[in-house]
Amino acid sequence: MPSPFLDLCGNSIPQEQVLGCGSSAVVVLRDGLAVKTPLRYRWSSDVEVEMNIEVIQREQDVYRRFQTSNAQCGGIVNCVGFLREATQLAYMTNGNLRTYLGTNQPSQQLQLSWFRDMARTLEYIHDRRVLVADIASRNFLLDSDLKIKFCDFSEASLLPLDADMDTVDDNGYTTRIDLGFLGAVIYEVVTGEKCEIDLFKDNLPSDGRATWPQRELLPNTENVWLGSIIEDCWVDGGFQNAHSLLRALDSIALHSPSPKPLYDRPSLTGFYFIQNLVYKRSIVTMAVILGALGTLALYRNRKQL
């Protein structure tokens, strides 16, 4: 089946070059780079393509905001270059997090490392006065060392640099919603179950304002590892910002199980059973010999008398 995607010149994009696609862009592998171009299907109208070009350009403005920061952040996929109608990004060899979780079970140590990097990067993003708005496992990429990176800012809000992030509200989108989405990603990684969140479930069709869902509509976190942290991402009165989330994650200590005593190890159980049996029999044998010697000595003493 031919690829449904076309480049802006109308040429078919080979399916083997396609790394992924979203609602407004398709990402293709070119010359070792992941190139994000406006989504164009064979049946797309010129108006639709132009709207997707505008989304690409708005996202480029977000990347430029990050690049002008004095403190660069390693938790965002590296933006290599800008074209008017495409963004060149570093290629992440291990793909997106959701696909990775489909075939791999990361250790708790690796998971905790990811969560701390996510929170640290979100703290940086908010410090640069950006709301991500679309945080999901499909929008995190893994490099060759399994380091995790934010990669999609097509839905992001680029706010004034003097905005108060504790109170900012962009049509319902807030830092709390970013934290809530990040809590959903943590839940998905820990449990292996997707946690889809609909911010418009209870809204009128004419109301485009985002609203965080009521707690009872979200999964139960009882007996889930890091469940209390996930809860504080989801409820009022929980984490105030990404910094408080990071502080909570930094307080988590992973303890390796204590090594079992040698005699409890299956490979050595038989050996120590035999050794113990021989030892016990040796004591019994020695007791019998000493008893016999004592009886003989008593008999000789009586005979001499």
Automatic annotation (TrEMBL):
Q: What is this protein called?
A: Protein kinase domain-containing protein
Q: Where is the Protein kinase domain?
A: 13-305
The signal peptide stretch is none
| InterPro entries the UniProt entry points to | Kinase-like_dom_sf, Prot_kinase_dom, Ser-Thr/Tyr_kinase_cat_dom
- Gene3D superfamilies per the record? Transferase(Phosphotransferase) domain 1 (1.10.510.10)
Query: Which GO molecular function, any one, fits this protein according to its record?
Result: protein kinase activity
Taxonomy-wise, where does this protein's organism fall, top ranks first? Eukaryota, Fungi, Dikarya, Ascomycota, Pezizomycotina
Its transmembrane ranges are: 282-299
**Gene Ontology, cellular component aspect:** plasma membrane
One Pfam family of this chain: PK_Tyr_Ser-Thr
The answer to whether UniProt assigns keyword Transmembrane helix to this entry is: yes
Q: PANTHER family this protein is in?
A: OS01G0253100 PROTEIN, OS11G0664100 PROTEIN
